[in-house]
Amino acid sequence: MQEIDRNRRPQEPVLIVEDREENRALLQGILNQLKIDSKIAENGQIGLEMVAKESFSVFIVDLMMPVMDGHSFIKALKDKDPEAIILVQTALDNTETIIEIMKKGVYDYIIKPIDPDLFARVISKALEYKYLRDIEKHIQKMESNKLRSQLEWLNYKESIRKSGSDSHEKNSIENLKTSLSQGSGFGAMTSIVDMIQSTAAKNPDGSLVIDGEIMDLLFENSEITKNMLKGLGYVSELLDSEIVTKRTEGSTLVEKIPEFCKEINSYLKLKNIKINYPKLSTSCIINVDIDKIGMAIEELVINAFKYCNENSNIDIFAHINNGYLIVSVKNEVKNDSYGGIDESKEKYVIQPFYRIHPPVESVNKIEKFGLGLGLTMVDHILGKHSGLFFIHNAKDHTTKTITLCVLSEIFLPLQ
Known about the structure:
CATH class of the largest domain: Alpha Beta
Distance between the termini: 49 Å
Structural class: alpha/beta
Helix content: 40-55%
CATH superfamily of the largest domain: Histidine kinase-like ATPase, C-terminal domain
Largest sheet: 5 strands, parallel
CATH topology of the largest domain: Heat Shock Protein 90
Strand order of the largest sheet: 2-1-3-4-5
CATH architecture of the largest domain: 2-Layer Sandwich
Oligomer: single chain
């Protein structure tokens, strides 16, 4: 039985609402094996009394109990907390029964007799869902304060950009592109050429004998250089192109996020990373160039992948707040001086060519923008939509272990 990731688990215990002692012992025994805290309520009435005193992550409820049965408990619990995550135990595995159970707004059901491995998978999914929902609520609380503190700066930047018609950004990129095309500015290429000059053996006929590994490095860096130049050309085209917006249902954009990020999928196994994609339950209308916003979201996910911890998750959230549709990309980073984005540098990381950390070449082939221009172009795209973009550190307090994360967020105004 595989243990659930303890770093992605809610702080609150699971509540087992079950009248039969042997079933309580079985469920609590499995949860103990999974190192999941749990408490027991012998019937629905006791369960409600416990809910009034403390919080629980997930509720495992038997339908048939004395004093207060599971049906009554679920109704009372949903009246108090409509978002309560409930797993229902049932001995009946037929379509009609399952439909009736799901109509109660429960998260999932468990068939008796309980299969420990199947139960472990169900409770794992439920706890992961609770964790992600808690994170989203935590993000929404942070956003209002963060938005107020950065709105003035971002609006000022937008006014400067509009008045200058992007000339500063465009001239910087064009100048750098010309310089790189002429062969300057690539330290790696220069170093490799120096190595060839110092190590190559010259034959009597004037030909050179060069180490094969050095030539492989030269060829590899040549490809990286070509990709960088291609990216700079792409940036120039994007700055020149018009944003063609269209009234779009917010859920349409959110549903396309996996498609925007499809090129990163083959790289995820390099670091054993999983991406959790969002759903948008609230209807809203936005005015967007969906392809351009897709580029921005893809860039944020690639950026998250480059700097996230191995064996972790990239979580994407979508929700409505303060008159915006907000798409947030969250990734865990090392909790040291190297990890994350210091508050003093938040406003600088979106500037052209500005880097906090060294480049990561592993995803060079799928990066549309190189040389530290990725976040600059995200900011540019959002500016053209009268939207906002910011990226900052965030501490995840929703689990027992506090983790350092980077949160990148795009704000699209609602119509």
